[in-house]
Amino acid sequence: MIFENIPEIRYAGPASKEPFSFKFYDPEKIVLGKPMREHLPFAMAWWHNLGAAGTDMFGSSTADKSFGAEPGTMEHARAKVDAGFEFMRKLGIKYFCFHDADLAPQAESLAETERRLDEIADYIAQKIDETGIKALWGTANLFGDPRYANGAGSSNSADVFCFAAAQVKKALDLTVRFGGRGYVFWGGREGYETLLNTDVGLEQENIAALMRMAVEYGRSIGFKGDFYIEPKPKEPMKHQYDFDAATAIGFLRRFGLDKDFKLNIEANHATLAGHTFQHELRIARESGMLGSIDANQGDMLLGWDTDEFPFDVYDTTMCMYEVLKAGGLTGGFNFDAKNRRPSYTPEDMFLGYILGMDSFALGLLKAAAIIEDGRIDGFVAARYASWREGVGKKIREGKATLPELADYARSLGKPAAPGSGRQEQLESILNSILFGM
Ligand code: XUL
Ligand code: CO
Fold it and tell me: Which of 29, 160, 178, 371 is paired with 42 by a 20 to 30 Å CA distance?
């Protein structure tokens, strides 16, 4: 055992003062007809939880993530598997997300890297058989290696593109082997630093070509899940092509990829794009493309991707409202989050996940309460009532003409008024649902 001092984490209720317990995440509790665990398929992010040790631009690691083995060795790769499965089992987490590069150290040659991945995959597959824990999604790290400095699918070099293709193929093999529900493309380097050296048209066509080949190959090896784009506007590149949900949806439709792809929406990426988390979820939901969620949050005082554990219950509530309205996710909730640098002990790893899981459980309870209360949905329905009858209905059905509507407007005799939007009243209702007894 790696986390010897940490017990299995159980539900103890909101009044509990026991740090190693859930205050709101009660897996078997029925919410709107379904147990919480089904509403909330949580996943562990391999890279942050088992890899991130607190290094930043100004300082080295604060946390020890060696798990008793020498970092950079296959022994360490195995120790991470042991730590990860023990961690997930103790928290009752049923899924994990991974990049190929998170699983085993990269070797000099692609062939040796792939051999190492196969070796560790055998070990992971054994753990999957023992525990029933599976992959939520897999992905290829197409941003860390220097060869991807100008992008992967969007690289100026066809040889670099082929390396990316090899990695995507292998990551798909692993995702299928680990029972993954999805496969992610996060285009961290798919963008540009300056337009002076960039052929945007060629780069976008090539990214689409890589995605199309991934779909063809994935389906040929029996992958039945969804492919996802994870939008992010910038960082590491100055501009990334998958800027936000609307941009990614337009891209997928332009290249005919929208039947196989959905979106993986990350809270911190939404705010970097100048949107709220709920905005991105709503745009994805309205297009039938809300697939999965990277559950974290940013810091409004810092302008970058801080990947904090979710804590803001307004955000998790409105997130869960969108998820409930979408009828759930085909993916799940991946904690793409890391402890703050000064929270460097193994206990902090658990405390971060307890915070995140409780914040989403509380959000689920409150979102269900908003729906059951009905005042907000009722207000929205009433606000658009004019579209369900008379002239509004005719317009919605596509049966109206401009001259006809002009005649109608003239016949009204008084200026048309939209009616109050009642924003303050609605915000007050939200507060009373969140904090009222
Ligand atoms: C980076 C990010 C990635 C993706 C997977 O901002 O969110 O970790 O989730 O590559
Ligand atoms: Co992410």
Answer: 371
Both structure tokens of 158: 């066809």
Compute the distance from residue 386 Cα to the ligand 2 centre, in Å. Answer: 41
Tell whether the torsion through CA atoms of 273, 279, 281 and 285 is positive or negative: negative
pLDDT in tens, 8-63: 999 999 999 999 999 999 999 999 999 999 999 999 999 999 999 999 999 999 99
Q: Which atom of ligand 1 is nearest to the CA of 264?
A: 9
Whole-angstrom distance, CA of residue 362 vs CA of residue 9: 17
Q: Do the beta carbons of residue 358 and residue 23 sit within 8 Å?
A: yes
Residue 294 near ligand 1, beta carbon < 6 Å: yes
Determine if ligand 1 sits within 6 Å of the CB of residue 336: yes
d(CA 186, ligand 1 centre) in Å:
6
Which phi and psi (to 5°) does residue 54 adopt?
Answer: 95, 5
Helices (H) and strands (E) in the chain, counts: 16, 14
Evaluate: CB of 186 within 6 angstroms of ligand 1.
Answer: yes
Pocket test for ligand 1, best of 294, 297, 307 (most atoms within 8 A of CB): 294
Residue nearest to atom 7 of ligand 1 (CA): 336
**pLDDT per position as a tens digit, 92-134:** 999 999 999 999 999 999 999 999 999 999 999 999 999 999 9
Residues with pLDDT less than 50, the chain = none
305 lines ligand 1 (CB under 6 A): yes
For residues 240, 335, 278, 276, the Cα torsion angle rounded to the nearest 10 degrees is -50
Per-residue pLDDT, 414? 84
Cα 222 from Cα 9, distance rounded (Å) = 36
Are the C-beta atoms of residues 166 and 148 closer than 8 Å to each other? no
pTM, 2 dp: 0.98
Give the CA-trace dihedral at 56, 62, 65, 66, to 10 degrees. Answer: 110
**Does 3.30.565.10 match the CATH number of domain 10-373?**
no
Residue 416, amino acid = A
Q: How far apart are CA 285 and CA 279, in angstroms?
A: 10
Q: What's the CA-to-centroid distance between 263 and ligand 2, angstroms?
A: 11
> Would you kindly state where each structural domain of the chain is located, as residue ranges?
10-373, 376-435
Between the CA of residue 261 and those of 112, 290, 292, 386, what are the distances in Å? 31, 10, 11, 35
Active site residue 99: yes
Cα separation of 289 and 230, whole Å?
11
